[in-house]
Amino acid sequence: GQSSKYVEIMEHVSQLMAQNPDRKNYKLYVTGHSLGGALATLFGLYAAASSTIPLPVTVVSVASPRVGNLAFARTFAEMESQGKLRHLRIANHKDPVTLGPTVSSKRALALSAKAFSPLGYLALVVTGNGEGGDEEVYYHTGMKMKLFKHVSSVSSQRCELTYSGITIISGSKKPVAIDQEDMAEIEQSNKRKKKESSAELPMVSYHYGTSYSERMASVESDMKGMTLNNVYREKVGGMPWGG
Q: Among 79, 129, 130, 179, which residue is least crowded by beta carbons within 10 Å?
């Protein structure tokens, strides 16, 4: 059958690495915006497991939705701890796209049927298409850089750095998504919009590339001298981070 885009790209990258011995010290960076950020996250994990690519592989995703379930997030965190993978996940504060999907389409369909059509829900359960378990819940990965439109209410900076896998590597039985507060804030904003005609404009505009460019430019001076490896060590102290 036809090979996947991943295989096609990896073959091209491997050829480039093999063309010049000096390139053995090159590192692979994968980046993308929105859906491209999600694809970059997936690609980065698989590339980091390859035996032909110098490590670590670094993913820089912008405005990415959640990508995988708990098993995916745990595998991602394990590869991070081994120094094989790094992920800087850039997300604008109040960008709704970065907060979902919280569950798979399978669970979303089951929950919708459960709320509006009990018979439909029963049919889904009988056919093995019920809500499912932890494998149907999605999590973010990597080091999150949240960018604010204005100075953060909790600091003097316009960005915050937090590690998405902190509850996963801690061994917590029920990992918690670090963006729960953002989701609650957006829910409250949406409720206010229904009551107040003067409510702020839809936050979808915060997902646009221009919005990200503006906010990234505003924190450029704060990021000087900072390395992703050092950020990992600072935010997740005590872990055997390689690299």
A: 129
